[in-house]
Amino acid sequence: MSPARPRPALEALPLYAPDPSPVEIDLSDNVNAWGVPPAAEKVLGDPLAARPSVYPRSDQLELRRALAAYAGVEPAQVITGCGSDDVIDGALRAFAAPGEKVAYCAPSFSMLSTFAQVNGLEPAPVPFRRDGDIDPGALLAQRAAITYVCSPNNPTGTGVSMAALERVVAGAEGLVLVDEAYGEFSGQTAVPLLATAPHLLVTRTLSKAFGLAGLRVGYGLAAPEVVQVLEKVRGPYKVNVLGEQAARAALRDDLRWVWRHVEEALDIRERLRVALEGLGLRPLPSAANFLCVPVANAASLGRALLARGIKVRILRGLPGVGDAIRVGVAPWAQMERLVAALRETLR
Question: Architecture of domain 19-35+256-346 in CATH?
Answer without folding.
Answer: Alpha-Beta Complex (3.90)
